[in-house]
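Practice problem: Putative hydrolase
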Amino acid sequence: MSPLSPTDPPRSKSQAPFHIVGDKTTSPLVLDVSRSGTSYPPDFQPTAPFPALHRKIAPYVERVVLPSTAEGATVLRAQFPPSFVDPNRPIDDIDPELLDGQWPTPTNPLAGSLRSGSGLVHSLGTDYTPLYDRKLPVAEVQQRISRYYTPYHSTLSALLAERRHVFGRAFQLSCHSMSSIGPRDGVKRPQICLGDLNGESAAPEYGETVAKVFRDRGYEVSLNKPFPGNELLRRHASPATGIHSLQVELRRDLYLDERTWHLHEGLAPLQDCFTAIAAALRPPA
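Answer key — structure tokens:
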């Protein structure tokens, strides 16, 4: 199926919420790819046209970063799409208007999530098409959290803790992609955006190492603009105890045609960057 197929979404044959590649603890680097999943769970029944929800993924990011495993890195990839449940959103970022019933704990929907319909459970497509013609039962949303969201975060936490135990420190690189033009301001975005929660999620040396790899290969790199990071960094970063977390946003036109989503010749140079990042962070033999 092509990325923009108008037919029904591909349904998961397995209930596994994520996939791990390179889990051998030979490097302190863990790359998490939380928003590129293309296996749609059987109980995910949106009424919007498939492209409206599929366009919400970060396409092919796993293809970009997987070569890093050749240098010992570990890649954790969510199999499910972020429109189903979004690991990069706080667990209380829930729009109560989406629910059929009372959520058992206080909700705290973020203003940006309400505006874009992209909270913990997305309510709008990329073109602001409503994803559902109904409200979602509370039990249904709770099941998404317990079966997909929580296991993803628990596994990421365990991977980082294991590497910290072995190497004395661990590096998380949360990998995403962004459109080349900001949808609200119409401004061209930088080629690479690194986020460290404005200096809170990682030692400066980690960000400098990653930025140098990209800059040495001719890429434009910004820090925290337009994206400083979100829940995946807030939840897992702990620089004081040896877990350093960065978010990387790749401008999509670097590796694909944004209209067709066909990969192009820019993919290989970006893959080389991630291999080089893993090599730079790998301890000497």
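Discussion: The first strand starts at residue 18 and ends at 21. Students who identified this feature from the tokens alone can consider the problem solved.
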